[in-house]
Amino acid sequence: MESKDGGLFSHDPAIFYDEKSKYYYTYSTDTAPRFREGIGGQIRRSKDLIHFEYVGTALKEIPREVKELTGVRNIWAPDLIRVGDEYRLYYSASTFGSQNSVIGLAVADNPKGPFLHRGIAVHTTPDSPVNAIDANPVREEETGEYYLVYGSFWGGIRLLHLDAKSGLPDEEGYGKVLACRARKSCDTAVEGPYIHYNKRNGYYYLFVSYDSLSNVYNVRVGRSRTLSGPYVDYNGRRMDDMAYPANHVGLKLTTGYSLKKGTGFLALGHNSVLETESGWFMVCHARYEQDPRISTLNVRRMVFDKEGWPAVSPCLYAGETEEIVPRDLLFGIYQRIDFVLDVKRLCEQPVSMELRADGSLKVADLTGSWSYDGQTGWLEVVIGGALEKLRALYATHREEGGSTVALTGRNDAGIGVWAVKHSKKRKQRLTVRSFV
In the structure, how many helices (H) and strands (E) does the chain have? Predict the structure, then answer.
């Protein structure tokens, strides 16, 4: 999904499906250079996860006690959960680079609001061991208990128990640490937590964003059998490991990339996750390579391999199904993006990859082989001494126009791979006009 109106200037989007109205809603920070009515917490809705319309703002004014503690003029990173007939919106009140922060709770009887202030869930100061932003309310499957996942720089990601009746914390302190990073290597850069449970395999997945939100932001994931962790990555490393090289902890799911010069996305991060009857989706924001000041909403299909690890499509969702791609549609030339854990540039550049009908392939100057399971839609690629497992998906080629095939997955070391086949329909390079 890429919209020039409904999704433009979205930041930190949280996705929510309302069973009553049958709408998908996103709640986000708004980065528009012009103010809308209200003071933030932008609400958009969609029937199809493709076309989003702007609904309004969650709050019309900053609650007095929140303003007195933080002095903010707008709110950040709202997220919604429904408890009974009540819709509970948790939001952040802070300023950039500050630990003087508040997570507030506002409630309504419908997902559009108006939301009324109920109280402060978490308040932090420069003396606190964590920063009170980026709230994600989550329900524990086994007990039905509610928790708040939150945090950012200064102490990482925490888990705090909530009172089911009020929605406010009922335990002292700041909660249990789930993920953190060392200051000496990355200035503790982890934020935007989101936990989602997979009923099919019994794992909780903790998604977080690493590094700077303005340039090399990227999504990482770990999983656990219990909500409280510990969360471990693809290689068995804990997400709160402070000793191992910081950029090598957490399975990397997104990366800045460009399939054609000047049309790429960078800083794909602060995601949420949606499970529907037609599959799983990751919803995040990204910035345009041509003008990084502009953020926009990204909706991408997410799939799981047989070991239960997710991968995200390199193409924006445009209504494609998850049905199996026939083998003969895989033959051809692709633009391939190899993920880099120690990021050096904002957008990774593609190399050419050719899948041939005889089961051979070529990636740049390397040759290898590939095989395809037509029952599951997964390829096994052997190249440069590494085994890669990639899922083939129907996709729409944003840069060239027309339908195509996309591949997503990783090698046996957990390094991600994206590839997009050239479409038959070519169009002129995309341009992004500046709104600033």
Answer: 2, 28
